[in-house]
Specification:
alpha/beta; 2 domains; globular; 358 residues; Aspartate Aminotransferase, domain 2; binds pyridoxal-5'-phosphate; Aspartate Aminotransferase, domain 1; seven-stranded mixed β-sheet; four-stranded antiparallel β-sheet; 13 helices
Length: 358
Amino acid sequence: MIEKLIRSEIRSFIPYNANQQPYKIKLDANESPFNLPLKVREKLSAFILENPQLNLYPDTDSIQLRQALAEHWDADEQGIIAGTGSDQLIQLISNVFVGTGDKVIYPVPSFGMYRDSCVIAGGVPVQYLLNPNKKFEYSKETIIEGYEKEQPKIIYICNPNNPTGNIMSREDIMEVARHCRNSVIVVDEAYAEFCDVTVIPYVKEYENLLVLRTFSKAYGLAGIRCGYSISCRKLADAINLARPPYNISSLSQYTAQLVLSEKEEIRENIAYLIAQRERMKGELAGIKGIEVYNSYANFILVKADNCSEVYKRLCEKGIFVRAFGHASLLAGCMRISVGTYEQNTIFLDELSTICYNN
Ligand SMILES: *Cc1c(COP(=O)(O)O)cnc(C)c1O
């Protein structure tokens, strides 16, 4: 009975399947391998011991956090929205702009939420392809053609792209923004700390441009579920119409703000992971049967001979990476998050053992 009650377009959804098995090394979700900075943990425990007022609802507008972010980015705090992960902001954007039959264009292969949130809102998702024969490069022409043809409410660009790791240049993104004036352009910069390419400065000039950022990756706070958007005030006001009250817990607001003030340690962590990424790219390229895609993020996409067997054997060793469906453009590919030197070394050793006995 329940099955029949589910909206038909949602019935075919596959529940999000995170690997919850015990593991030795977890390189499957692009999380940071670093613990919270000690200073932050100390301040957080002092906050909890004092009186965190958890009996009260949190600040519904995350004012202090948004002020700290506005200062960090030299942006207008009225144009910043904090979300329960940037995932929530993707949902809100769909809910505000996409009605029955409205179109959304989004890259493939990329992050699955762009499509799902559109379908849940009742819209029509239209993919634009990143060319697998050209290292999954973005093409501004393809996006502009999609815009002309579909007249979408929303255009997504994931930069750097998850899971392929490549980037679209700032110039190309801005050319899309200049051309596609009648759509909301969402640039998802979940991994931008690892490449320093951002279009945040342009939200002042382009009222249809919105940038998504998150504390889940470079800032090492996937556990608190906090992300944010930066746009002009008008666009933020529109999205806020659908935002549930009290959407960020007070502990999350406080923790995010604390981490934002530990700029030096975060910077060091990012530099460390970038160095490890470059090391891994080099070493992976030397392993038999592995083809490496360039990456500007904290993960690396590889194509592996006999991928499902390699993936299975890594799992048996307690090493988790992300594999993809057989039918997709990513058939035979795995995405490996960059970990600590020690984790990466163990992973590389196991992978080469598997590949040379394959
Ligand atoms: C991880 C990720 C996010 C966001 O995650 P939250 O934890 O919800 O902030 C957004 N976009 C992409 C492409 C991601 O990979």
